[in-house]
Amino acid sequence: DQASLDPKIVSLWEKCAVNENNDKENFQRSFVRHVTTTLARSVYNIDNFSAYQATAHTVRDQLIKQWNETQQSHTEADPKRVYYLSLEFLLGRSLDNALLNLGLKENFGEGVKDLGFRMEDVLDEEVDAALGNGGLGRLAACYMDSLASLDYPAWGYGLRYTYGIFQQRLNDGYQVEFPDYWLNFDNPWELPRLDVTVDVQFGGSVNKYTDEDGRVRHVWEGNDVIKAVAYDVPIPGYGTKNCINIRLWSSKPKRQFDLGRFNAGEYEQAVQEQMQAENITAVLYPNDNHMVGKELRLKQQYFWVAASLHDIVRRFIKTGKPWSKFPDQVAIQLNDTHPTLAIVELQRILVDLEGLKWDEAWDIVTRTFAFTNHTILPEAMEKWPVPMVAYLLPRHMQIIFDVNLFFLQKVEKLFPDDRDLLAKLSIIEEATPQFVRMAHLAIVGSHQVNGVAELHSNLIKTTIFKDFVKFYGSEKFTNVTNGITPRRWLHQANPKLGDLITEVLGSKNWLKDLSSLNQLEKFADDKEFKKQWVTVKRSNKVRLAEYIKTHTGVVVNPNALFDIQVKRIHEYKRQFMNILSVIHRYNSLKKMSSEERCDVVKRVIIFGGKAAPGYYIAKLVIKLINSVAEVVNKDESIDDTLKVVFIPDYNVSVAEIIIPASDISQHISTAGTEASGTSNMKFVLNGGLILGTVDGANIEIHEEIGDDNIFMFGNLADQVEDLRHAHRYRNVPIDPALQEVINDIESGHFGDSRIFSPLINTLTIGKDYYLISDDFGSYLSAQNLVDEAYKNQDDWTRKSILCTARMGKFSSDRAIKEYANRIWNAKPCST
Ligand code: Z15
């Protein structure tokens, strides 16, 4: 409370703010102070890890100041807030990012060096915050960076998992998972708010009573109460004082013990039940694009949503504004269907707790929420058994049935007697048992629904949600093409390229306005500039080659073409097709004479990515890649023209080393299956060309960078259904080149072929659902075009420069402005 502050304290605080000076000497003073006090270590005994911690704590002090000032100024201005609800935030490391965004890198870097440390070694001590699986979680992290950098008054809400995405190791070429206990040491990037808590209840029953006005009111009395504790993660903007917050909830048992149970001698069991509370936020579910219907996952979702909404509503109530103003003050974005229960929870708060009439409440709810869909894969669609929802959340289940009833009544009015349409639109799937279709609930409870790339947004309107377009019209559905933050994915991951760009453009303005990269176009034929461009790429390749040597033992030649596919392992992403084409290449090389091989472009084919622990086929793909690598890499008869590596434990900080080093990266999903993809943007921004299918954001990248600078192949999305039909009902002969490769595997060339038969069977008895055979021929042709193009190094460099120059559209700043203007109606609010 400001009014009650002692003026002495205020004046001290103001002095602090004025004296704030982040020069080298002040940094070093703070560094030493943190070593001796925060870390309680002696100055005679500082290793790299202590140096990291002391630097991190110095940056943390700075972040906290800016965080406080930002929150204070937002409270005063009280603008419309944006809330981004995401079950995943894949942040990666924070130190380097914070140093760059706060403009401290230079002074602190010198300070660290001066004390006898190498900044790279210090930065390398940090463990990744890996609270996400892949694209969806990383997108949330990029969006927070842009929200902060553009001065939006925004909050992220998520869960503070004790274990992030598992660590991947390889044993005999097989993936093995290890727990990611990332909080083993103190985490300087979070502010525990042990006083900010919310009680979240589960189970129990709903009682009805009639209030003084004769209205029937519902009271939900849970039989299980769990405490949500807030941990705040400050997110600094680039080139602004704005520092926003991601609030992550951690589950704790309520301290109130049931005395009766203890007296009855059930102490052990009572404590056991208390411990179950901590289970809720213990572990991130490791599936990407795949729904697993575990009860604990549903509990995570409600726990998170209930705590977050309570917080949001509490903040609104403090302003004293009437409920009708809620949608003018609050925009809530649902990152996929994971937070859909928030819609139901807000309706419950408004009707049951605040006493609003149903229709009035529902109007507020639908004007508050907007929903982003990230996939059309059927196995990823969330649906929860009605009995499970009714058991854990009895009142929510009632509300869902009521929402559905009123919704279907409106459908019925517009389309009388169309029972088929009612069944298709219903929030409830009429199976045994019934299921709640979360995407349907999210659409009905939101004012806008968006896809994440043009093709994807069109597909949702014509496939999975086409009946909703019939009812609502198509204006409810829109597109916001994904974006990536140029701060992390160019400035930070590729400092040499960043510096070169800054030098020729004469300023760092491109970091705030990525479209200004188009000024690079005029240097695409500049001899001197091209030389520098090549030098940067080459040094990034050397850096990656060293990383590969230390982490796989394989020696690769930095002069070879680096061909990279790194992403979650999934059948739809077709890493299988890639490794099959590697076998094809290997066999061709073996058939050549050594003179012929002299003219061949040397390739290093690099894979990386995690498979969900329960995804058997994906894990077999990893094994096949490693089996092929083993045979190819030790075969001296092919004169080093081909190397294959699988980089273990792909994550954000490994991506920062891999992405700047690519010549070609592969984004080769079956057309229509990859909603957007975002690593495609990162590679091209770093001057890597791409080999891709006509899918997701590849299409828009193609539009921006032009035909000459991209290698596209394969069947189009609108051909996929017919092709699948043909595989199912006709005898489609397998592509002959593919058949040869299959025969080669089956001959035992890459180890016991029986291991791989479930994988091979997906192509034959599995009807080749992802159309590898249909695309194989055009894939091989596109690969040949890549080889040919790479022979002309000078022209390749020109293409590389043009790629970077034309990527302005794919900044997450552009994406966030679109959300703010077209969906949230939110304005920046600078501190
Ligand atoms: C995920 O990472 C994505 C979609 C999902 O439905 C889930 Cl559960 C996880 C990815 C898409 O596969 C990818 O194409 C997209 O670029 C990314 O979300 C961000 O929109």
Automatic annotation (TrEMBL):
<keyword id="KW-0808">Transferase</keyword>
<keyword id="KW-0119">Carbohydrate metabolism</keyword>
<dbReference type="InterPro" id="IPR011833">
    <property type="entry name" value="Glycg_phsphrylas"/>
</dbReference>
<dbReference type="GO" id="GO:0030170">
    <property type="term" value="F:pyridoxal phosphate binding"/>
</dbReference>
<dbReference type="InterPro" id="IPR000811">
    <property type="entry name" value="Glyco_trans_35"/>
</dbReference>
<dbReference type="GO" id="GO:0005980">
    <property type="term" value="P:glycogen catabolic process"/>
</dbReference>
<dbReference type="Pfam" id="PF00343">
    <property type="entry name" value="Phosphorylase"/>
</dbReference>
<dbReference type="InterPro" id="IPR035090">
    <property type="entry name" value="Pyridoxal_P_attach_site"/>
</dbReference>
<comment type="similarity">
    <text>Belongs to the glycogen phosphorylase family.</text>
</comment>
<keyword id="KW-0663">Pyridoxal phosphate</keyword>
<keyword id="KW-0328">Glycosyltransferase</keyword>
<feature type="modified residue" description="N6-(pyridoxal phosphate)lysine">
    <location>
        <position position="682"/>
    </location>
</feature>
<dbReference type="GO" id="GO:0008184">
    <property type="term" value="F:glycogen phosphorylase activity"/>
</dbReference>
<keyword id="KW-0021">Allosteric enzyme</keyword>
<comment type="function">
    <text>Allosteric enzyme that catalyzes the rate-limiting step in glycogen catabolism, the phosphorolytic cleavage of glycogen to produce glucose-1-phosphate, and plays a central role in maintaining cellular and organismal glucose homeostasis.</text>
</comment>
<protein>
    <recommendedName>
        <fullName>Alpha-1,4 glucan phosphorylase</fullName>
        <ecNumber>2.4.1.1</ecNumber>
    </recommendedName>
</protein>
<dbReference type="GO" id="GO:0005737">
    <property type="term" value="C:cytoplasm"/>
</dbReference>
